[in-house]
Amino acid sequence: MAIERLSFPAASQPRKQPMPKLPLYVLAAVAALGGTLYFYLQYLTKHAPRDIPLTPEAKAYVRNLQLSDVEMQANQSYFNQVVVEIDGKITNTGDRAVDQIDLYCIFRDAYGQLVLRKRIPIVSPKSGGLKPGEMKTFRLPFDEIPESWNHAMPSLVIAGIKFS
Q1: What average pLDDT does this structure show over 150-156?
Q2: CA 79 – CA 142 distance, rounded (Å)
Q3: Measured at the alpha carbon of residue 79, what is the angle toward residues 77 and 85, in degrees to the nearest 5?
Q4: Are residues 60 and 27 in the same domain?
């Protein structure tokens, strides 16, 4: 009896599949996005506009800044929202140049209670400041005034002055 040898093909070795690179790319993209967000927030913290103070020197100079022709009007926006605008002029009757002037706009309800206080620059270095004897116009739009507002002209108070 002859023994017949059967030959079986060699057991194939499991092939090593290359690891998918997609998770690595996703991880790199998330890390890059996180790093960018971190540095952007750091930049904003360092370069955030700071409120200019109303120093004793600036308080004494306030009498030289005259608001005039201040008017208020309400307009309907495209989104059916009421936008209140305050237009006016500011004149520097003093002898010093001013780089920036901030105003507080104080809105009240029917009982005289504060419903909104917003600080807004009306003169800025971008607009060229305000030289002695010079007059500039300003426009202040408001679209977030609470419903409880009494619809009267808000109080306009100079909140900060930065001299040149």
Answers
A1: 94
A2: 14
A3: 25
A4: no
pLDDT in tens, 29-51: 888 888 888 777 777 666 555 66
> How many angstroms separate the CA atoms of 58 and 64, rounded?
10
Euclidean distance between CA atoms 163 and 70, whole angstroms: 24
**Residues 35 and 96 grouped into a single domain:** no
pLDDT digits (tens, 9 = 90+) for 95-111: 999 999 999 999 999 99
Q: Tokens 């706009």: give the residue.
A: 105
If asked whether residues 111 and 134 sit together in one domain, one would say yes
Burial of 2 (0-12, 13-18, 19+ CB in 10 A): exposed
CATH code: domain of residue 76: 2.60.40
How many domains are there within the chain? 2
Q: Are residues 25 and 102 in the same domain?
A: no
Q: What is the pLDDT of residues 122-144, one digit of tens each?
A: 999 888 899 999 999 999 999 88
Cβ 161 vs Cβ 98: under 8 Å: yes
Is residue 31 in a domain?
yes
